[in-house]
Design goal:
It contains two helices and three strands; from the N terminus they run E-E-H-E-H. It is α+β, with helices and mostly antiparallel strands.
Length: about 100
């Protein structure tokens, strides 16, 4: 089950359950669409994979399965990330 993390790991933008800006990789690393597009160029800094829009958990399910309350903030070191981004940004995420 998805954790539904509620903030961007890079810029700490709030990404509540119903956010249309939340993007996740296959390991649930969570970033806002602005960071994914303009900073990360669709390359996850943690695993090298791509991102997809995070689904919204139905309101009725939030009672039994609430969103994650822990804030995960790991701003990307852009100098360190540069090599991974250059290696992967022009490759379709499904072929990385």
């Amino acid at each position: 089950m998805l954790e539904i993390r509620t903030n961007c790991e890079h810029c700490n933008k709030s990404l509540p359950n119903d956010s249309s800006e939340a993007m996740i990789c296959s390991f649930e690393c969570t970033f806002c669409s602005d960071c994914v597009t303009n900073v990360l160029e669709n390359v996850c800094p943690n695993c090298g994979g791509g991102f997809e829009k995070r689904p919204t958990r139905p309101a009725q399910s939030l009672i039994k399965n609430p969103v994650k309350t822990e804030i995960i903030l790991k701003p990307v070191d852009l100098e360190v990330f540069k090599t991974l981004k250059q290696k992967n940004k022009d490759i379709d995420p499904r072929k990385r």
